[in-house]
Amino acid sequence: MSGIISGFETIYNRTPDAACFAPGRVNLIGEHTDYNGGNVLPCAIHLGIRCAAACRRDRWLQFFSESFPDSGVIVYQLDDLRLQGCWADYPVSVIRAFSAFGYRIENGADFYFSSDLPDGAGLSSSAALEVAVGVMLRTLFSLPLTQQELALIGQFAENRFIGVNCGIMDQFASAMGKRDHAILLDANSLSFQYAPLENASLVIVNSCVKHSLASSAYNDRQRECETARKMLNVPTLCSLSTEEFDSSSGKITDNTCRCRARHAIYENGRTIDAAKALINGNLSEFGKLMNASHTSLRDDYEVSCTELDFLVDTAQRIHGVYGSRMTGGGFGGCTVTLMEKSSEKEFITVIKQEYSRKFNIIPAVYSVTVCDGAGIIDF
Ligand code: ADP
Ligand code: MG
Fold first, then answer.
1. Distance, CA 122 to ligand 2 centroid (Å)?
2. 186 and 99 in one domain?
3. 84 DSSP β-pair partners
4. What angle, 0 to 180 degrees and rounded to 10, lies between the N-to-C axes of helices 89-100 and 125-140?
5. Calpha distance 305→297 (Å, rounded)
6. Do residues 139 and 287 both lie within one domain?
7. I need a labelling partner for 257 at 20 to 30 A (CA). Which of 64, 103, 165, 374 fits?
8. Ligand closest to the CA atom of residue 329
């Protein structure tokens, strides 16, 4: 915390007006359901992005990130917000998105960022960055925006200007997170419900691999789901219950597309059941649903990889583990595992040992706490 204040002072030679924290997120279950009109169940985590900022009297914008020190201070002008092909395009896109939502920023500002999220690992550093900028702009310029609007603005910035066709989950979790709760979110309607997640340890393991297949496979999966949706003649795949799917799946003539649709529809059912299990305090049931989610992502959706399967198999065999699965888009990135608190130490030792023995890579392991969504921090 004091890090961003003194960092800001060193870079800009003055004191910031305000500081904030925006969390990253992990999706507990509900993978590849959002663009099929289904539910997701993420939670905000204590790892995230901190930002200190101050208004300027002129129309210059300056950005510095501890994660990209070699880039130095990156400068833009409010009258020319063209992207420059660097990380600061994310905050600038948020400023452009504010305009598109009717909130024109008329004064410049200086920003300083610090992060403890691994970037590009699937814990949504980009959404945390966007939401952090949103919180700072709201504060510096006294704008009447809700947390939910900040999430929508962040998503708009990333879709429209950065050109990443992400759903709303990441920004929503970062803005709307609640301590010790997961969020059951209907990605279509934005209706949501909090479900308690307590008395257990949540551990994220970064496989530290990212296979190049990821982005082309993502487009393939979207296309395959779209083909299945048309054959079923439904508005979205997840508008079908699992029973309705079972009785009509024969309409999908292509075997691969049928498997993709089965994943999306069953995963949506599991996600709703998983939220119920949390509400009932039934962590064993929740864990079984996580395991089933991984199997389906591996076999029906085919977005896992050897490293993720190994991490999940190893985790599922450790005493006290409720459930484990890959999380995020797939082909690398992270797994998420829920376990009894008393098993955490052994879990971390075993997973590091086994994974490095097999792949010669020491995985990054994060024991995370589930925290509130983005907001101002005192200094
Ligand atoms: P993730 O899964 O972490 O969201 P993305 O590829 O969507 O991965 O976003 C990562 C990008 O977000 C980085 O390449 C960088 O441009 C930006 N970013 C993330 N964290 C920071 C940071 N701390 N400082 C500056 N830019 C960041
Ligand atoms: Mg991202």
1. 7
2. yes
3. none
4. 50
5. 10
6. no
7. 165
8. 1
pTM for this structure? 0.96
If you write DSSP's letter for every residue of 281-343 in order, what string do you get?
Answer: T-HHHHHHHHHHHHHHHHHTS----HHHHHHHHHHHTSTTEEEEEEESSSSEEEEEEEE-GGG
Nearest to 296 by CA among 318, 264, 271, 327: 264
Same structural domain for residues 78 and 223? no
Under DSSP, is residue 161 helix (H, G, I), strand (E, B) or coil? Answer: helix
- CA neighbor of 35 nearest in space, from 332, 260, 333, 306: 260
Q: How far apart are CA 178 and CA 45, in angstroms?
A: 10
- Mean per-residue pLDDT, 279-294: 98
Beta bridge partners of 169: none
Task: Provide the H-helix boundaries in the chain.
Answer: 2-12, 89-100, 125-140, 147-156, 169-176, 214-232, 242-248, 255-279, 283-299, 306-316, 344-359
Tell me: the pLDDT tens digits for 170-191? 999 999 999 999 999 998 899 9
* Number of residues that make up the chain: 379
198-245 pLDDT tens trace: 999 999 999 999 888 777 888 899 999 999 999 999 999 999 999 999
What is the distance in A from the centroid of ligand 2 to the CA of 174? 12
Rounded to an integer, what distance in angstroms lies between the CA atom of residue 144 and that of residue 139?
Answer: 9
- Measured from CB, residues less than 6 Å from any atom of ligand 1 are 49, 65, 67-68, 87, 90, 113, 115, 119-126, 129
CA–centroid distance, 127 to ligand 1, in Å, is: 8
Pocket test for ligand 1, best of 129, 155, 166 (most atoms within 8 A of CB): 129
How many structural domains does the chain have?
Answer: 2
102: region left, alpha or beta (phi > 0 left; psi from -120 to 50 alpha): left
Percentage of residues in the chain having pLDDT higher than 90: 93
Domain match, 35 and 157 both: yes
In this structure, the residue with its CA closest to atom 21 of ligand 1 is: 125
- Structural domain span for residue 63: 2-194+371-376
How far is ligand 2, taken at its centre, from the CA of residue 46, in Å? 17
Q: Whose CA is nearest to atom 8 of ligand 1?
A: 120
pLDDT of residue 156: 98
